[in-house]
């Protein structure tokens, strides 16, 4: 069987498998519209465009992957409107949304997912690689089946990526909200630092020193000298009646003591 006969035979088989999905454009070119099975109520499809070179199946067919179609012209208008909604969702800044809005977006997220040109390019590379592995035998049915599986997987990957973006944004917002009810953790070091800064800001130590100097004028009372163990009882006889002890004299005595 020559290449042309193999091509005609494969095309007839494909027409029987895809009676409504396959459209013959010429004797060597046709398209298969492949509906995807997704969890969304909105339908999705990819279009496999195939052109037979003269040497097919001994060489790789000329392939392309395009956006598929659903129903009639009215559906095209609906899809155009939905495309705009999808773009709005993609451009949304989830960080600015409140929790209720984010939850609503999660519920409707599956309905906003749609394959784009980058996705079609990824799918095309995958089926071209498979076509190269199947050189020497008719492979369009196998390629169409693989394309359906890859497209459904690509669709779910996009959904999970978008879902993660929303969930991460919601968790970040919740963490920020939680900070309002969680005070800064206090440690010994942080308290000491705050205490020193607070006393310095209010000038507490300075005012205490000034107040002490004003009251005692640099002198200690006999009671204070006794409590601090700076003199014997005899030396305090003249100070028990609250008389003051000269600090300079005390310092001279202390400096003369050998340790």
Automatic annotation (TrEMBL):
Residues 68-100 are annotated as: Disordered. It comes from the Eukaryota. Residues 9-154 form the RWD domain. Gene3D superfamilies: Ubiquitin Conjugating Enzyme (3.10.110.10). Pfam families: RWD. Residues 73-99 have a biased composition (Acidic residues). InterPro entries: GIR2-like, RWD_dom, UBQ-conjugating_enzyme/RWD. PANTHER family: RWD DOMAIN-CONTAINING PROTEIN. This is Gir2 protein. It comes from Pichia kluyveri (Yeast). The lineage of its organism: Eukaryota, Fungi, Dikarya, Ascomycota, Saccharomycotina.
């Amino acid at each position: 069987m020559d290449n042309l006969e193999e091509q005609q035979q494969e095309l007839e088989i494909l027409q029987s498998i895809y009676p409504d999905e396959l459209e013959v454009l010429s004797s060597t070119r046709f398209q298969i519209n492949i509906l995807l099975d997704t969890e969304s109520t909105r339908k999705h499809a990819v279009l496999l465009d195939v052109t037979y070179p003269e040497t097919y199946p001994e060489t790789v067919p000329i392939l392309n992957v395009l956006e598929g179609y659903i129903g009639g012209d009215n559906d095209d208008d609906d899809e155009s409107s939905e495309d705009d909604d999808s773009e709005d969702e993609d451009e949304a800044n989830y960080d600015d949304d409140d929790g209720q809005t984010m939850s609503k977006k999660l519920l409707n997220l599956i309905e906003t997912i749609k394959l784009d040109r980058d996705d079609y390019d990824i799918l095309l590379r995958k089926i071209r690689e498979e076509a190269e592995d199947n050189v020497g035998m008719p492979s369009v049915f196998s390629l169409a089946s693989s394309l359906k599986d890859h497209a459904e997987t690509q669709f779910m990957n996009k959904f999970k990526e978008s879902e993660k973006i929303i969930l991460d944004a919601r968790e970040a917002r919740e963490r920020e909200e939680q900070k309002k009810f969680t005070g800064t953790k206090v440690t010994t070091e942080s308290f000491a630092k705050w205490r020193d800064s607070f006393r310095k800001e209010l000038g507490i130590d300075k005012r205490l020193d000034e107040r002490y100097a004003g009251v005692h004028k640099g002198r200690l009372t006999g009671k204070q000298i006794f409590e601090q163990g700076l003199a014997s009882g005899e030396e305090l006889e003249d100070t028990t009646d609250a008389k003051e002890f000269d600090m300079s004299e005390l310092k001279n005595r202390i400096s003369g003591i050998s340790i």
